[in-house]
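Quick one:
INPUT:
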């Protein structure tokens, strides 16, 4: 023991000297304020976070069209009723039925819509429940769903490659996306707003000029923010849960996305509040591979069923009650 103590003493002395050098403890300068004696460390940014350059300090770009300006929400009419377990041969429904499970792209950090239940570790939420209703109509069994965790960058490539059958991920139907994939009818209607800490002094989009704002890349939220408030500095993160952490660590002054998603973040922190009016309407649709018309019509038939039999309202009441009483489901619009 005495040998270890003898060896430790010089190391301890070196450590003390190192701390003295680090903290500037040699005494204050005679002609200025005292040097800080305790180093400060900022919390690290969420993994994969990136500060984007501002789009410029000028006025909002009114000439730039909104991501939903073309109204790509009309979809195909529901197909003829089918019996679970007996899908028409030769198409995507037969392929899914033969496989024995529906494969759906979701994420695991969008509270209220698709998230890990902390009690069970299972995926839960409004989007997860919608996926199970589609599986119910294919197989007669809502449990026959394989959920793949996909972020906003790789969910479309996964759909086009056939790795997943559907994207059910609080995904807004936009003009750009509708050129690459097909969509169901609208199953939820949100509006982009702003989330801040109480007492922040931010009341709307005009107050975001010169502020650091959190959002997720490859989303309508980022496109709208850069369009209506180019003077904001954007912290782009991988998930909406990362925006919650960034707000709590005071690394940003606001976050912006759909009000339904913001409500899921606010439900986890009583010091957060949603402010301002709508930046843009956000109609959610289920993403389906281009040309899979049979699957589009089948999904629309499920959505028609849950609107009319009360399932949609029950799911809203189960998962989205923080938004208030269930409204009427979004009315479908068909193009054929």
């Amino acid at each position: 023991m005495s040998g270890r103590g003898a060896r430790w003493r010089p190391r301890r002395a070196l450590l003390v000297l190192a701390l003295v050098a680090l903290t500037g403890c040699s005494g204050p300068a005679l002609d200025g304020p005292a040097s800080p004696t305790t180093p400060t460390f900022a919390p690290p940014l969420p993994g994969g976070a990136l500060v984007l350059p501002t789009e410029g300090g000028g006025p909002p770009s009114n000439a730039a069209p909104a991501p939903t300006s073309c109204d790509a929400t009309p979809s195909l009419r529901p197909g003829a009723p089918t019996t679970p377990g007996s899908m028409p041969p030769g198409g995507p429904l037969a392929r899914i039925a033969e496989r024995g499970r529906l494969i759906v792209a979701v994420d695991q950090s969008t509270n209220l819509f698709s998230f890990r239940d902390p009690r069970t570790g299972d995926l839960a939420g409004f989007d997860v429940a919608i996926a199970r209703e589609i599986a119910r109509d294919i197989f007669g069994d809502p449990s026959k769903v394989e959920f793949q965790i996909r972020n906003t960058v790789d969910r479309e490539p996964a759909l086009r490659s056939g790795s997943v059958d559907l994207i059910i991920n609080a995904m807004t139907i936009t003009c750009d996306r509708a050129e690459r994939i097909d969509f169901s009818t609208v199953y939820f209607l949100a509006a982009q707003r702003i989330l801040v800490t109480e007492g922040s002094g931010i009341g709307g989009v005009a107050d975001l000029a010169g502020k650091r704002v959190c959002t997720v890349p490859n989303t309508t939220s980022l496109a709208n923010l850069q369009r209506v408030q180019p003077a904001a500095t954007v912290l782009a993160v991988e998930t909406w849960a990362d925006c919650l952490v960034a707000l709590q660590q005071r690394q940003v002054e606001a976050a912006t996305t759909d009000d339904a998603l913001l409500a899921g973040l606010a439900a986890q922190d009583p010091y957060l509040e949603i402010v301002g009016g709508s930046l843009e309407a956000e109609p959610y649709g289920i993403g389906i591979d281009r040309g899979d018309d049979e699957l589009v019509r089948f999904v629309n038939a499920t959505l028609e069923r849950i609107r009319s039999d009360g399932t949609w309202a029950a799911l809203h009441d189960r998962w989205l009650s923080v938004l208030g009483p269930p409204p009427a489901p979004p009315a479908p619009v068909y193009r054929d």
